[in-house]
């Protein structure tokens, strides 16, 4: 009874917020808040950036939860086990290649990877998808190639470095975490009472919609929190400090990695932002921006903490940061 009451309250609040949104959308101009409410330009900028991040990410989140729900409904644990090579090390390279067929951003891939791991995929192979899928796909390559038409090697360098890093990071995760369970599970998942689980042919599509809607709202709330905090950073962080630090070739990659983390751009669009720094930062530091941001940023860190154990998230962030930084330094010395 208590659970039913809580669900009813949640549904009521959600419906009330929906009605409020519709009311404001239709009648905001008639309310005439202009003379009564003064909003600073900084907060207007926060609002603009916040909405831009949401509008940019939501379509890819929707793709991610639909794919995740299809996996939940139509892909069995036995199939995942059959498709995954028995040797954990041998499986790394094929999975890195397979990651290239998922044309989704860093937000959308998280629910997909979580579902694959719940279905039986080893943790380190799921990590390869987290690293590779947001970068190793045709959409990202095309946007990077177009953004850097004067230096198309940036697009090829991004793809090549991302492929190598996905393998290296997957191997490091395997060494540190082995095959331990690092997911957070809800009570319903542990008891096997998730809504809509069915083997009936017709009801499978109904179950897919149930899972997609549940997961969309579960992922969406963390996206909203992360997008808001990221918009705050973008507005109130003094970028001149970053530009001063970026003049050093050793610190510049770290600065651009931090910048990518804070900006929380979608991997399909970040190349155009990176290209705008071409006259300020070195090619190596811009490459660090292009590789690091799609793997981890502020908004998907919030989502990672929501779905994985803190030990794994902290370890994953540390591994990615160290490996990307060292790889970029090596790249600078060898090719630039």
Describe what this molecule looks like in 3D:
- The structure is a single chain.
- With 336 residues, this protein is mostly helical.
- It contains 16 helices and no strands.
- Helices cover 74% and strands 0% of the residues.
- Helix 2 (41-74) packs antiparallel against helix 10 and helix 12 runs parallel beside helix 14 (283-295).
- It starts with a helix and ends with a helix.
- The model is unreliable at 190-198 (pLDDT under 50).
Helix and strand layout, with pairings?
Layout: H1 2-31, H2 41-74, H3 77-83, H4 92-98, H5 106-118, H6 123-132, H7 138-147, H8 153-177, H9 187-191, H10 203-236, H11 239-245, H12 252-263, H13 270-275, H14 283-295, H15 298-307, H16 310-335
Family: Belongs to the UPF0718 family.
Transmembrane segments: 12-28, 49-71, 91-113, 125-148, 160-177, 219-237, 252-274, 286-306, 312-331
Protein name: Permease
Short characterization:
The chain is mainly α.
Question: What are its keywords?
Answer:
336 residues; mainly alpha
The shape is globular
Helix content: over 70%
Through-space gap between termini: 65 Å
Number of helices: 16
């Amino acid at each position: 009874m208590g659970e039913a009451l809580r669900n009813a309250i949640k549904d009521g609040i959600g419906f009330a917020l929906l009605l409020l949104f519709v009311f404001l959308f239709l009648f905001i101009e008639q309310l005439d808040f202009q003379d009564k409410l003064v909003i600073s330009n900084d907060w207007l900028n926060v609002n603009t950036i916040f909405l831009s991040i949401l509008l940019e990410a939501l379509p890819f989140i929707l793709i991610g939860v639909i794919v995740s729900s299809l996996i939940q409904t139509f892909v069995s644990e036995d199939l995942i086990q059959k498709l995954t090579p028995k040797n954990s090390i041998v499986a790394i390279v094929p999975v890195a290649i397979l990651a290239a067929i998922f044309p989704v951003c860093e937000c959308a891939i998280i629910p997909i990877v979580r579902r694959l791991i719940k279905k039986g995929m080893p943790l380190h192979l799921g990590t390869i998808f987290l690293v590779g899928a947001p970068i190793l796909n045709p959409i990202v390559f095309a946007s990077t190639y177009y953004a850097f038409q004067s230096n198309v090697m940036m697009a090829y360098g991004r793809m090549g470095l991302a492929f190598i890093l996905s393998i290296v990071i997957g191997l490091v995760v395997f060494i540190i975490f082995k095959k331990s369970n690092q997911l957070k599970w809800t009570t319903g998942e542990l008891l096997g009472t998730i809504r809509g689980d069915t083997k009936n042919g017709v009801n499978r599509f109904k179950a897919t919609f149930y899972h997609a809607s549940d997961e969309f709202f579960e992922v969406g709330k963390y996206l909203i929190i992360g997008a808001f905090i990221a918009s705050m950073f973008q507005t109130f962080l003094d970028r001149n400090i970053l530009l001063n630090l970026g003049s050093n070739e050793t610190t510049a990659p770290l600065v651009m990695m931090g910048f990518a983390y804070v900006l929380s751009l979608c991997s399909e669009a970040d190349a155009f932002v990176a290209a705008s720094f071409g006259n300020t930062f070195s090619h190596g530091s811009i490459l660090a921006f292009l590789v690091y941001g799609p793997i981890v940023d502020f908004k998907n860190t919030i989502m990672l903490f929501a779905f994985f154990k803190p030990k794994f998230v902290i370890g994953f962030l540390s591994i990615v940061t160290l490996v990307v930084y060292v790889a970029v330094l090596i790249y600078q010395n060898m090719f630039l």
